[in-house]
Amino acid sequence: MHLAVIRRVVFSISAMHSLRYSSKLVSNTTPVVVRNSLLMQRRIFHNVNGSFINDSKITRNISLPKLFAKQIQVREYASKVVKVPALAESITEGTLSRWNKKVGDFVQQDEEVATIETDKVDAPVNSPYTGTIVELYAKEDDTVSVDQDLFKIETGGTPAEETTKEEAKEEPKVEKEEPKVEKEEPKKEELKEEKEEPKKEEPKKEESKERKKELKEQEKIPSPSPPKTDSKSATTLYGDREDRHVKMNRMRLRIAERLKESQNTAASLTTFNEIDMSNIIDLRNTYKDSIMQKHGVKLGFMSAFVKASVFALQEIPIVNASIEGPDGGDTIVYRDYVDMSVAVATPKGLVTPVVRNAHLLSFIEIENAIAELGKKARDGKITIEDMAGGTFTISNGGVYGSLYGTPIINMPQSAILGMHATKERPVAVNGKVEIRPMMYVALTYDHRLIDGREAVIFLKTIKEQIEDPRRLLLSI
User: Fold this and answer.
1) Gene3D superfamilies, from UniProt (predicted)?
2) N or C: fewer beta carbons within 10 Å in the chain?
């Protein structure tokens, strides 16, 4: 039987393409389909007779004998460079906080490859192609700019695991026979040595009586006590101590910058009041179960304070205004809408997502919006758009047990309301001392724009709305 063998295949292909070969045994006289790239110029097959087969077509069928026939496939790949995407308006750079993939990993289209940390949020970078990552152009903690080369991906192909499984199936199993090692019988001389018992040591001679007396006298003499250690040594007093130097992340740096900007720019002043929470607590306890069953949301105090603040902002519009312009501002901007910023604590810092058009929302709609924004913030999925804007801010330190505090204005806004913990305290009610659940509230405002009179009336209006929730429904 004459056997034909493919000895050599010569390809001419573009430098931007890589080739991959996979082979599979086929039956006798089974035609082999050879697929080539459109960029391929020539293919030459050489057999044992010395003749050549020159094929310029895209597909050619060749009959080969069994065992030597192979299916040759040329797969086409292209390398693509992915750049840093646009992060958000006015943000041109960020810090590469982590790589979620490494060189050699196979990724699907829209799968997250890296995370870039900006001043406000973490922005994911997704792969626009399906393929294998072949090169990374930046390291973690590097500063990267928009449109900068980030990584290279080789498009096409399949995950390495699938290819490995296919190749593993094709390879025939070869059983390896381990050479048998015959055990050598121990020699007679070795057995004799093992049987020999160790010689017993000769008993020592009995010590003299004088020597025994000396030993007894030495036992009676007390041994000197060890020196006392100083229990107040440096190690005992302070233990093992160390200083850790950790670089601030971008969000923390931005928070520090904005807070200092607020202190340096605004003429901040704080006024205080206290609120009897009895009626709003009764309202919440009466309807919280019904609201949970019907709307699937918890009824808290934040929605009531948002509604009360909206009413107060409409009554005192200067608190909802802001100063704009060069050199510290020369223009007052009044707004006929309320975008309420609600402070939310996250592991990386404080963020203030915005409840849009709060003046048009009901209690339930406000609670839904706050719950959704809070979850996104804690999960690290909050976006720049979620925090942009805002005309007034509410910060609730009471959830952490804060009794009293002065919040800092969230520039360029002009005021911020601080809520605190509700505590039972003795108060005078109609000439009698009663124990009531009380909350201290604080309003920090920019005295350049808001006078003390407006600030006090504003906070007093919120107090009246919360102490009598019927006002919230009747808008009085």
Assistant:
1) 2.40.50.100, Chloramphenicol acetyltransferase-like domain
2) N
* Tokens describing residue 194: 């093992």
Whole-number pLDDT of residue 13 = 38
Residue 125: what residue type? V
pLDDT tens track for 229-244:
555 555 566 778 889 9
| Secondary structure (3-state) at 342 | strand
DSSP character for 143? E
* Ranges of the chain with pLDDT below 70: 1-77, 88-90, 120, 157-237, 476
Average pLDDT, rounded, for the chain = 77
Q: Burial level of 383, CB count in 10 A (0-12/13-18/19+)?
A: middle
Residue span(s) of the chain under CATH 2.40.50.100 come to 78-160
- pTM: predicted TM-score of the whole model, two decimal places: 0.61
Q: Residue 316: which of 251, 280, 281, 271 has the closest Cα?
A: 271
Query: Three-class SS of residue 110?
Result: coil
d(CA 285, CA 349): 32
CB-side exposure of 109: number of CA atoms within 13 Å?
A: 7
CB atoms near residue 149 (< 10 Å): 14
What is the predicted pLDDT for the residue at 384?
79
The candidate with the shortest Cα–Cα distance to 88, out of 115, 111, 119, is: 119
Q: Domain 252-474 falls in which CATH fold? A: Chloramphenicol Acetyltransferase (3.30.559)
As a CATH number, domain 78-160 is 2.40.50.100
**Parallel, antiparallel, or unpaired for β 322-324 and 331-333?**
antiparallel
Residue type, 233: S
- Output the pLDDT for position 221: 57
Catalytic center residues: 447, 451
For the stretch 283-305, pLDDT in tens is 999 999 999 999 999 999 999 99
Strand 392-396 relative to strand 340-342, pairing: parallel
Task: Please tell me the distance from the alpha carbon of residue 333 to that of residue 163, in angstroms, as a whole number.
Answer: 64
Residue 434: what are its φ and ψ, rounded to 5°? -130, 155
Parts of the chain belonging to CATH 3.30.559.10:
252-474
- Indicate the helix (H) or strand (E) that contains 218: helix 209-220
- DSSP class of 161: H
Separation between Cα atoms, residue 414 and residue 319, nearest integer Å: 6
**Long-range contacts: 62-65, Cβ < 8 Å, 24+?**
62/31, 62/32, 62/34, 63/29, 63/30, 63/31, 63/32, 64/4, 64/6, 64/29, 64/30, 64/32, 65/1, 65/2, 65/3, 65/4, 65/28, 65/29
pLDDT of residue 48: 40
